[in-house]
Amino acid sequence: MNVNIEVGWKTQLKSEFEKPYFEQLANFIKEEYSKNTCYPKGADIFAAFDYCSFDDTKVVIIGQDPYHGIGQANGLCFSVNENIAMPPSLINIFKEIETDLGIPFPSNGNLQRWAKQGVLLLNATLTVQAHQAGSHQKRGWEQFTDEVIRVISDKKENVVFLLWGGFAKKKGIKIDKTKHHVLTSGHPSPLSANRGYWFGNKHFSKTNDYLKSKGETNINW
């Protein structure tokens, strides 16, 4: 199957795109997009990979589902387009960055600027039907994104994985911790953050400290 994705990722994932489950997934997605309103728009389904090449990837943040509200999802986990109000989890992410690094709140929630610096913003499921959270789960995306994580773990070194909440921690269970730096905390959603499981994790300064220790450039959060 010919998938339009950044060439480095295409090389690494070529065998995955040729597996029967992926063909079934692709057929399901085509049908869903033809019959229903789905997010993100078709051209942005693989945006996380297009903005952050395989070679450039040095930080991975794992989300669950794309946002399912009108115009929110842009193919990068936790990110929204410039003209869209920031969801609560993203607000809490920026609050932690402000406390941790003293970086003021940005004017918008589009995280393409992170992706271009080597942050892979990976949702476990890459598509969703409008207003139907989790509607495209268990169709094959999880198997595909498990393979993405495995490839990064196996083929690269010194990548920082940020695993926020129980779902992301389970998703990252096979990361080789002898080669990579794994940071875990509660999820930035209000339910978790307000119970004390998010704020103060200092993941953004810790990420930069680790990258610096390995001779890599910092992420400008």
Automatic annotation (TrEMBL):
It is found in: Cytoplasm. GO terms for cellular component: cytoplasm. Pfam families: UDG (PF03167). InterPro entries: UDG_fam1 (IPR002043), Ura-DNA_Glyclase_AS (IPR018085), Uracil-DNA_glycosylase-like (IPR005122), Uracil-DNA_glycosylase-like_sf (IPR036895). It catalyses: Hydrolyzes single-stranded DNA or mismatched double-stranded DNA and polynucleotides, releasing free uracil. Keywords: Cytoplasm, DNA damage, DNA repair, Hydrolase. Gene3D superfamilies: Uracil-DNA glycosylase-like domain. Signal peptide: none annotated. The keyword DNA damage applies. PROSITE patterns: U_DNA_GLYCOSYLASE. Its EC number is 3.2.2.27. The active site is at 65 (proton acceptor). CDD domains: UDG-F1-like. One of its GO terms (biological process) is base-excision repair, AP site formation via deaminated base removal. GO terms for molecular function: uracil DNA N-glycosylase activity. The keyword Cell membrane does not apply. Residues 49-211 form the Uracil-DNA glycosylase-like domain. NCBIfam families: PRK05254.1-1 (NF003588), PRK05254.1-2 (NF003589), PRK05254.1-4 (NF003591), PRK05254.1-5 (NF003592), ung (TIGR00628). Belongs to the uracil-DNA glycosylase (UDG) superfamily. UNG family. Excises uracil residues from the DNA which can arise as a result of misincorporation of dUMP residues by DNA polymerase or due to deamination of cytosine. This is Uracil-DNA glycosylase.
